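User: Please fill in residues for this 144-position structure.
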């Protein structure tokens, strides 16, 4: 890929133009970096609403009509439903079952199971099952 840099006189004139055939994950990632777009999810911790950075999220799960956000060591509740979070989150997040969304950047390894499902081990050691209906899309995102 060719990179052209043009020096400007002021911060107001700074900008970037991306010319691409397709909007790939790599280009989307570059856009996020350029926009300094650190997305957050409002979560509840100790009765207070705090902002959880999406880059810290391992997975999000819906249990008994409540939605929980899991990071490396913490579990938070959020008022959002999974379908709402899907639209808020970037392309590194993927639905892997009716009740779960996973951050594919937090996957350490995946293993196929006999029943067509897959099992993913996350960087924090947790094991997550990927439903058959979502295996193909996960394989596409991971390039396997």
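Assistant: Residues filled in for all 144 positions:
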């Amino acid at each position: 890929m060719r990179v052209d840099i043009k020096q400007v006189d002021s911060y107001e004139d700074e900008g970037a133009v991306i010319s691409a055939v397709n909007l790939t994950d790599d280009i989307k990632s570059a856009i996020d970096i350029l926009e300094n777009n650190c997305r957050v999810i409002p979560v509840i911790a100790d009765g207070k609403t705090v902002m959880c950075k999406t880059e810290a999220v391992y997975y999000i799960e819906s249990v008994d009509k409540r939605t929980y956000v899991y990071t490396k060591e913490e579990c938070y509740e959020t008022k959002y439903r999974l379908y709402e979070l899907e639209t808020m989150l970037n392309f590194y997040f993927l639905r892997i079952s009716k009740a779960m969304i996973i951050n594919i950047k937090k996957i350490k390894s995946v293993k196929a199971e006999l029943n067509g499902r897959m099992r993913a081990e996350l960087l924090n050691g947790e094991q997550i099952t990927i439903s058959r209906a979502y295996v193909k899309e996960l394989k596409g995102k991971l390039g396997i």
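For context: The two ends are 24 Å apart (CA to CA).
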